[in-house]
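#lab-general

N.A. 3:47 PM
ok so I finally got the sequence cleaned up, no stray characters, all 144 residues accounted for. can someone with queue access submit it? mine expired

B.Y. 3:52 PM
send it over

N.A. 3:53 PM
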Amino acid sequence: MYCLRKPLESDKTTLEKWKLETILTDINFISLNEKQRIVKYVHAEIEKEYEKYRIIQVRKKDIGCLFVRPYEDGALLSEIYLLEEYRNQGIGTSLIKDVLNQYKIVYLWVYKENIKVISLYEKLGFKRKEETDTRIFMKCIPVS
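B.Y. 4:20 PM
back already:
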């Protein structure tokens, strides 16, 4: 259904665009100063971490990215992004299930406004651990 590839240096701009879209789409009201701060942060993060991302491909077309990093006693699903036209086709669910199969414990942050994704995570076994004003921290211990 999908495959993952290592990113190239030339993928940095696309990764930044996708990461910004993920962040800014889920934030309704934001000041210009805050947006500029986020853009600067995203640029620095991608510059530092881009080699740890994986580009998601379907039929050799880049359709999104995945970033999983070690975290405490498991892994943090730091980022998952799919182009709009590839959402709601089971690709994201399949990716998350594959991550759950690779790690004994998986954590993630999700924006509270992303109700549909929160519902998916809960169906996959994630439980809410803590909340901020804008986000929910979730944890899943996959059943072997």
